């Protein structure tokens, strides 16, 4: 569904993406993990066309995304830090996106109800807490029933109840056969969600494996432990990885 | 496109700054007409007020608005909308609201107190100056990511066109006063939209008689219908060129 071929991106002198080649298919639920600043968000933004890669190509359903914009109809994006116009209320933001999309298809308002955002419709975005802003981002990502969901640190900042609701929603969408791309540092949370893992480091893809394969290779039954043992074998010097050990 | 322009337009009209700008323009224009005994003098006062405040407010407000709407731009970019469309919608939304503010604030007193060719000319030129400086604001805000730097560039641009450029022209005039540079001066005015606007109005007010030989040369060129068309085309270029450069840059900007 999404094919990324040899993309490179530099911000000034800093190489953020170095010859990244990946492909994602329908029905997969992929976790994109790696230390801070390894290029996860840049990769996601390149898929969305917000960052333009210096080299390489990105294809969505066989069509290049460069210069195209209609393909974004099929993507629901939840940013890491949702930033919205300060003066608009939650209701206005959702109303505005609905108007801009102008789609006739049925809207998926499950999350809107589950998060009880309707009560806060006339609250200004500026007054919202980080967690509530995340909830708005999540609602917008799922609202139009997209085929692909790109979630950048979806559960960061959400309270346990809300992140449980979101996880259930993700599992539900996954069962519908959608492609889901998640970045996260909380590996324990991903255990019952994902089918594949991509580990990135310094702008390169370290490995791209099925979770089942990974678990059998390392003889571990938790993703966090499996990753940790792989990292120990391959690179004993990487210590500053933010992997959550407790699970 | 209309949907996004509408959203931006309504958002700007809600802000109190545009309202205050309209009120200030209204107070200034009404009082200049009330203070002067004939409308030609009143127009001259309004001209100076307009050529000073309109560019400043247009460029500053538009620059700050663009920096503040970077969240909005990011949000729109994750939706199925062309980049070009987002940028042009912002431009039209901002230009439209600045022109509306100018029309309500200064246009109405102009049309009431001087309902002739000069008044209409003034109205048109005020609108064009508003649009030109909105376009320059787009250019200055795309040049840098840093809000403080961007606003600095905007203020410098205004300062250059409103004060420094005139100073430089005067300096050149005195330095080369022994040479026949009158024709060259006509060309130099094309380098500043404010000067183009000022000369256009002054020639219509018959005060050009007081500008001596240079005034006569200006009248020879700008007074003809060809000169009029050329100067309007130049003003249009001043709006189109900066905007197109900024759009080219926006197409390849990383957000």
Can you lay out the helices and strands and say which pair or pack?
The complex is a heterodimer of chains A (247) and B (255).
Chain A: E1 2-11, E2 14-24, E3 29-33, H1 40-48, E4 55-60, E5 63-64, E6 75-78, H2 90-101, H3 110-114, H4 130-142, E7 148-152, H5 160-175, E8 179-183, H6 187-190, E9 196-201, E10 204-210, H7 211-218, H8 223-234
Parallel strand pairs in A: 3-8, 3-9, 6-7, 7-8
Antiparallel strand pairs in A: 1-2, 1-4, 4-5, 9-10
Chain B: H1 2-14, H2 16-35, H3 39-68, H4 70-77, H5 83-113, H6 117-143, H7 147-175, H8 182-189, H9 193-204, H10 212-222, H11 225-251
Helix pairs in contact in B: 1-5, 2-3, 2-5, 3-5, 3-6, 3-7, 3-9, 5-6, 5-11, 6-7, 6-9, 6-11, 8-10, 9-11
Question: In words, what does this structure look like?
Answer:
The complex is a heterodimer of chains A (247) and B (255). In chain A, 32% of the residues lie in helices and 25% in strands. Chain A is α/β, with parallel strands linked by helices. Chain A has a six-stranded mixed β-sheet, sandwiched between helices. A four-stranded antiparallel β-sheet of chain A has the order 2-1-4-5, with helices on one face. In chain A, a hairpin with a 2-residue loop joins strand 4 (55-60) and strand 5. In chain A, helix 7 (211-218) crosses helix 8. The longest helix of chain A has 16 residues, at 160-175. Chain A is globular and about 55 Å long. By secondary structure, chain B is mainly α. Chain B is 85% helix and 0% strand. Chain B has helices at residues 2-14, 16-35, 39-68, 70-77, 83-113, 117-143, 147-175, 182-189, 193-204, 212-222, 225-251. Chain B is globular. The two termini of chain B are 21 Å apart. The model of chain B has no long low-confidence stretch (mean pLDDT 88).
């Amino acid at each position: 569904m999404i094919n990324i071929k040899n993309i490179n991106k530099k911000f000034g002198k800093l190489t953020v993406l170095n010859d990244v080649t990946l492909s994602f298919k329908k029905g997969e639920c992929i976790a994109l993990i790696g230390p801070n600043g390894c290029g996860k968000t840049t990769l996601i933004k390149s898929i969305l066309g917000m960052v333009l890669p210096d080299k390489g190509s990105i294809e969505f359903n066989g069509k290049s995304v460069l210069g195209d914009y209609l393909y974004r109809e099929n993507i629901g994006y939840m940013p890491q830090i949702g930033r919205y116009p300060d003066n608009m209320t939650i209701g206005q933001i959702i109303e505005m996106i609905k108007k801009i999309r102008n789609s006739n298809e049925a809207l998926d308002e499950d999350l809107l109800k589950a998060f009880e955002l309707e009560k806060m419709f006339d609250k200004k975005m500026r007054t919202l807490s980080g967690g509530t802003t995340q909830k708005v981002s999540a609602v917008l990502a799922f609202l139009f029933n997209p085929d692909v969901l790109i979630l950048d640190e979806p559960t960061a900042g959400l309270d346990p109840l809300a992140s449980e609701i979101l996880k259930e929603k993700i599992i539900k969408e996954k069962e519908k056969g959608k492609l889901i791309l998640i970045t996260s540092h909380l590996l324990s949370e991903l255990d019952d969600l994902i089918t594949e893992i991509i580990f990135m480091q310094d702008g390169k893809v370290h490995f791209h494996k099925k979770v089942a394969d990974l678990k059998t290779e390392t003889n571990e039954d938790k993703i966090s432990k499996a990753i940790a043992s792989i990292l120990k074998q391959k690179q004993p010097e990487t210590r500053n990885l933010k992997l959550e050990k407790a699970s | 496109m209309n949907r996004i322009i509408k959203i931006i337009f309504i958002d700007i009209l809600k802000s109190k700054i545009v309202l205050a700008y309209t009120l200030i323009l209204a107070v200034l224009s009404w009082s200049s007409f009330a203070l002067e005994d004939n409308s030609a003098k009143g127009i001259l006062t309004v001209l100076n007020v307009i050529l000073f405040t309109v560019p400043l407010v247009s460029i500053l407000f538009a620059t700050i608005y663009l920096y503040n709407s970077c969240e909005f731009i990011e949000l729109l970019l994750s939706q199925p909308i062309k980049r070009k469309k987002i940028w042009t919608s912002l431009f039209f939304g901002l230009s439209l609201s600045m022109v509306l503010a100018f029309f309500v604030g200064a246009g109405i007193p102009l049309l009431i107190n001087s309902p002739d060719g000069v008044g209409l000319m003034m109205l048109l030129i005020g609108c064009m100056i508003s649009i030109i400086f909105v376009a320059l604001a787009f250019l200055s805000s795309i040049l840098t990511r840093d809000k403080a730097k961007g606003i600095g560039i905007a203020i410098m641009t205004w300062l250059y066109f409103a004060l420094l450029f005139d100073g430089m022209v005067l300096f050149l005039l005195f330095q080369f006063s022994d040479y026949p540079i009158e024709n060259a001066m006509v060309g130099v005015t094309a380098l500043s939209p404010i000067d183009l606007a000022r000369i256009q109005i002054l020639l219509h007010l018959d005060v050009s008689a007081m500008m001596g030989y240079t005034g006569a040369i200006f009248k020879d060129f700008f007074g003809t219908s060809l000169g009029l068309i050329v100067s309007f085309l130049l003003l249009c270029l001043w709006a189109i060129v900066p905007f197109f450069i900024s759009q080219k840059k926006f197409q390849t900007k990383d957000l």
